[in-house]
């Protein structure tokens, strides 16, 4: 394994979710598993490890994040015991296509969570949210690092709400796995996330084939809902979400207008 000890900014924990790190490495069949009690962000640590040469498939977990974040630098509340906070490093052979990476990751995570936790019924909200019971179950943050115009590595972080009773009181619109299924052991959630991320991200598809689009169509939480597309300081554009394009773009049909593609900005329900 690459010697990354000198680059670490936080002291590693001996275990995570009641499992020794050695057991996690055996469980996921790799040496590059790193666990921490309290760090700023699993994505930050994963990036640091990637820059030090850690292999594709490296996993970083923690019990608590002090500066967890989502898209556009938004804060992701990450208190100890409330959820799963996990990032993985990939070294893709092809350039990652945003927002396709988070769409692919979302579909594969929802698929794996639904398989392992029957009755959950999780779905994907473009571009990077996991939904269940009409509320936010988790989020995905993908960050690519380039050198000379070439993708060097991809870091994908996942946060999943697991225990509702440990979420902060001021977190609105969230749902936890424990609200939906019982039991929801943290290490079992990590199993689902690792399996989901490894389904397609090691090869990072550059477009979705017909079978993938069919699967996404079944898991698309926004489809046939009226939404507002917000981009920078422009007035929100209202339209009907009409599905996802092969490159991961959201297809939006404004009232009385032509179908168009959305590749950036945020989406909220409304405008019906």
Primary descriptors:
alpha+beta; BirA Bifunctional Protein, domain 2; SH3 type barrels; 2 domains; seven-stranded mixed beta sheet; 6 helices
Short recap of the structure:
With 272 residues, this protein is an alpha+beta fold.
Structure description:
There is one protein chain. This protein has 272 residues and is of the alpha+beta class. The chain folds into 2 domains: 214 residues, Bira Bifunctional Protein, Domain 2 (BirA Bifunctional Protein, domain 2, 2-Layer Sandwich); 47 residues, SH3 type barrels, CATH 2.30.30. The protein is 23% helix and 31% strand. It contains 6 helices and 14 strands. It has a 7-stranded mixed beta sheet, with helices on both faces. It has a 5-stranded antiparallel beta sheet with strand order 13-12-11-10-14. β12 and β13 form a beta hairpin. The mean pLDDT is 89.
Task: Please specify the SSE layout and strand pairing.
Blueprint: E1 15-16, E2 19-20, H1 21-27, E3 33-39, H2 42-51, E4 59-65, E5 83-90, H3 100-116, E6 123-125, E7 129-132, E8 135-147, E9 150-161, H4 177-180, H5 186-200, H6 210-219, E10 226-230, E11 237-244, E12 250-254, E13 260-262, E14 266-269
Parallel strand pairs: 3-4
Antiparallel strand pairs: 1-2, 4-5, 5-9, 6-7, 7-8, 8-9, 10-11, 10-14, 11-12, 12-13
Helix pairs in contact: 3-5
């Amino acid at each position: 394994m690459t010697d990354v000890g000198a680059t670490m900014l936080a002291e590693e924990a001996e275990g995570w979710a009641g499992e020794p790190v050695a057991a996690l490495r055996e469980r996921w069949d790799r040496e590059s598993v790193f666990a921490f009690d309290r760090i700023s962000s699993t994505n930050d640590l994963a990036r640091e490890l990637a820059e030090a040469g850690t292999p594709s498939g490296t996993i970083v977990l923690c019990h608590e994040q002090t500066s967890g974040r989502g898209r556009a630098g938004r804060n992701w509340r990450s208190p100890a015991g409330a959820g799963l906070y996990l990032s993985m490093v990939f070294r893709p052979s092809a350039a990652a296509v945003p927002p396709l990476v988070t769409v692919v990751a979302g579909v594969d995570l929802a698929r794996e969570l639904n398989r392992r936790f029957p009755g959950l019924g999780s779905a994907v909200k473009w571009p990077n949210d996991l939904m269940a019971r009409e509320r936010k179950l988790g989020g995905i943050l993908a960050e690519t690092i380039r050198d000379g115009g070439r993708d060097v590595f991809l870091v994908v972080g996942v946060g999943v709400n697991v225990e509702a009773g440990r979420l902060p009181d001021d977190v609105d619109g969230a749902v936890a796995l424990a609200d939906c299924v019982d039991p929801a052991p943290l290490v079992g959630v990590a199993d689902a996330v690792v399996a989901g991320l490894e389904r397609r991200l090691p090869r990072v598809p550059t477009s979705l084939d017909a079978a993938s689009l069919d699967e996404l169509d079944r898991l698309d939480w926004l489809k046939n809902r009226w939404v507002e597309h917000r981009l920078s300081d422009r007035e929100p554009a209202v339209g009907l979400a009409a599905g996802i394009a092969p490159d991961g773009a959201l297809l939006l049909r404004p009232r009385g207008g032509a179908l168009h593609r959305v590749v950036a900005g945020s989406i909220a329900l409304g405008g019906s």
